[in-house]
Design a protein that fits this description.
Length: 140
């Protein structure tokens, strides 16, 4: 069971792992032992995720999620399978935690009178500067 938040838990049966050869560190074992892990999680069909979290996760995952709604995380930072496995699970948990955080709705506000006046004053000043640059004298 992967505990994400107090309300969100993902059972082991929803996660699938595949071990592959790692492009990262590994010493002499790098060409012999499959230490990198590909962790897959089916976001689209998971009963563990609320609908709003699923929607935000689709946006956050970017290219890590395929057309079928399967999120794949590759971990090959460490030399051992166990550390890479923990790393992939932690990255998945962090991504879901970010998606679980409901963004604060923006409240539309209008600019203050002072800010409007300052903006117009700076525009006038800039226009004057440009106008003085373009004036040519015909005394030649």
């Amino acid at each position: 069971m992967l505990q994400i938040t107090a309300a969100i838990r993902i059972p082991e049966s929803e996660l699938s792992e595949r071990f592959i050869r790692s492009p990262g560190p590994g010493g002499q074992n790098v060409n012999k032992v499959a230490t990198a892990v590909q962790l897959s999680f089916d976001v689209a069909r998971s009963p563990s995720l609320p609908e709003d979290v699923r929607r935000r996760l689709n946006g956050l995952a970017g290219r890590r999620i395929d057309g079928d709604g399967v999120l794949t995380i590759e971990a090959h930072r460490f030399r051992t399978r166990e550390r890479n496995r923990e790393d992939a699970r932690e990255r998945l948990a962090d991504l879901i935690r970010q998606a679980a955080h409901r963004p604060k709705p923006r409240i539309a506000t209008r600019p203050t009178r002072g800010s409007k006046e300052r903006r117009l004053a700076s525009k006038k000043l800039r226009a004057q500067v440009k106008q003085t640059r373009s004036r040519r004298t015909t005394e030649d």
